[in-house]
Design goal:
It is built from 14 helices and 9 strands. The chain is an alpha/beta fold. The chain binds S-adenosyl-L-homocysteine and iron/sulfur cluster.
Length: about 350
């Protein structure tokens, strides 16, 4: 084959200019021949812009109650098979305190859309965690701007809200009762309020096209997101999408690698869902553009109960085990665990 194919030229363009058109992204997403070259280019850009440090974020899954009904998600309100829980404030603070002791510099507070955690409760939790000297990422779904403002005033640093897909029609089909424009409004509010903005997409949801994935990547660039989490959709047997095919590890990491090429200095997690599909998933993702891992610091039975999708990794492990396991994986590929809070250092 011609060594200097059009695809290789596109990879070179992405690596040197960090710009691609939609058609070029589509061509790269469809190509199967030069995947290794694409991943290598993403790895070089990662190394050049964000270095060899890997930032760890300790994930606290503090409630699996959710008022929403996203068709893909095991926590959707119409799933009666989930045993629902809420952690109380003391338990959340206890998990955050232990996360700090394990050496995490950030905790991620994630839950379903659970209104019981009203602004006052969240503000109190955020303030107490802040007193520990940790950075805080919040990921609790769509809220009015005033609520985001209150979280920010209390000290929250980052917010994660995936757009899931930029195909508005598909989004509204898969997220009944939700409105795509409102999700974008949330992202804009979060950005304006000074949060580090995290968004991302699901790869392989039914009805999604390669063109739509290219739009997702361009959307991340337009939003100038600070963090992008890309994960394969993994069908959950207790949801309406039970029989669907789901996303693949390869395509998810391609979307992630292209995201790294176009947004070279952002933080990109090697997602848990990737490792759920491939036992080496997080290490491979770290070698295809990722520079963040979010190990679980939730303890005990709650890990099993926060079942977004089946096959979720580490559900029987302890936070201590996860911490040493991930450190071993990171150092095993010649990288090192960061000791900073890991904010985006804008260079692009
Ligand atoms: N309720 C909040 C945060 C918890 S859900 C929110 O929706 O933003 C966190 C993420 O889990 C979602 O953004 C979605 O992308 C992912 N998720 C849900 N169901 C999934 C599935 N079946 N496979 C893979 N990821 C899934
Ligand atoms: Fe709720 Fe988030 Fe799951 Fe949607 S994706 S059902 S908002 S937990």
């Amino acid at each position: 084959m011609n060594k200097y194919s059009g695809i290789e030229a596109l990879i070179n363009k992405a690596e040197t200019t960090h710009e691609l058109t939609k058609d070029e992204l589509v061509a790269l997403l469809k190509d199967r021949q030069y995947e290794a070259e694409l991943f290598a280019a993403a790895d070089r850009v990662r190394q050049k812009y964000v270095g060899d440090e890997v930032h760890l974020r300790g994930l606290i899954e503090f409630s699996n109650k959710c008022k929403q009904n996203c068709l893909y998600c095991g926590l959707r309100r119409d799933n009666p098979k989930v045993s629902r829980y809420r952690l109380d404030e003391d338990t959340i603070i206890d998990f955050a305190t232990k996360a700090k002791a394990y050496g995490y510099r950030t905790v991620v507070l994630q839950s379903g859309e659970d209104e019981w955690f009203d602004v006052d409760k969240m503000v109190s939790i955020i303030k107490k965690i802040k007193e520990l000297g940790l950075a805080i990422t919040v990921s609790v779904g769509e809220k009015p701007r005033e609520v985001y403002q209150a979280y920010r005033d209390a000290g929250a640093d980052r917010y994660l809200l995936r757009i899931e897909t930029t195909d508005k029609e598909l989004y509204e089909k898969l997220d009944p009762g939700m409105n795509w424009d409102n999700r974008v409004r949330c992202l804009q509010d979060l950005k304006e309020l000074g949060f580090e903005l995290g968004t991302g997409c699901l790869v392989g949801i039914p009805g999604q096209t390669v063109e739509s994935l290219a739009d997702d990547i361009l959307f991340f660039k337009t939003m100038d997101a600070d963090m992008i989490g890309v994960g394969p959709f993994i069908p959950n047997p207790d949801t309406p999408l039970a029989g669907e095919a789901g996303g693949t590890f390869e395509l998810s990491t391609k979307v992630m690698a292209l995201t790294r090429l176009l947004l070279p200095d952002i933080n990109i997690p090697a997602t848990t869902a990737m490792e759920s599909l491939n036992p080496q998933g997080r290490v491979l993702a770290l070698q295809r553009g990722a520079n963040v891992v979010m190990p679980n610091v939730t303890e005990g039975e709650y890990r099993q109960k926060y079942m977004l999708y089946p096959g979720k990794i580490c559900i029987n492990d302890t936070p201590a085990h996860c911490r040493s396991c991930i450190t071993g994986k990171i150092t095993g590929i010649g990288r090192r665990v960061s000791e900073t809070h890991g904010f985006r250092a804008k260079r692009a």
